[in-house]
Design brief:
The protein is of the alpha+beta class. The protein folds into 2 domains: 1-57; 65-164, no CATH class. Helices cover 45% and strands 20% of the residues. The protein has 3 helices and 4 strands, in the order αααββββ. It has helices at 2-56, 65-70, 82-95; strands spanning 117-123, 128-134, 139-148, 154-163. It has a 4-stranded antiparallel β-sheet, covered by helices on one side. Strand 2 (128-134) and strand 3 form a beta hairpin. The longest helix is centred in the first third of the chain and has 55 residues, at 2-56. The chain is elongated and about 105 Å long. The N and C termini lie far apart (91 Å). The chain crosses the membrane at residues 6-24.
Length: 166
Amino acid sequence: MKRSLMLYLIILIVLMNIYTYMFLSKEVAFEQDRYTKVTTKLKDSLKSVTNKLADANYFSLEKNENAQNYFDSGSAEKTIQYEKLIPVVTEKLLDYNSNPKGNPYTGQDQIGANKFIINKVRILNHRWVIADFSDGEIWGEVLLKYFVNADESIAFEVNQSLLYQK
């Protein structure tokens, strides 16, 4: 009786070991396969997002080599670095938001109680800026020309402005 009990226990332990080994080996293979699939999917997603970002930045001074070359005069003293120009132009345009009648470069006169101010600016190339503006209720966009004067001051000119309907 004792021997048969021991035999049954040994057989049970061997079967449990075989089952555990098979389960764990399949689990490892499953996890490796899942890891491979997830990694592939993430790489594809990253590539897709990178391509979309490159497309979105196509019209920007940071990516437009021809526009960047416009500021390169050949003389080291007169060359304007576009990396430093972008924040200067943006800041200069946003400084006009403090005007009591609103930013004059929105191309719109004050309609209601609130003034129009520029919220977001994108420098497209060596000549154009697009900006988003609002008064809190009405939204619009404006296309501006900008000029870097000889004294390195920035001048703006409204090219086109539009308001969206409420």
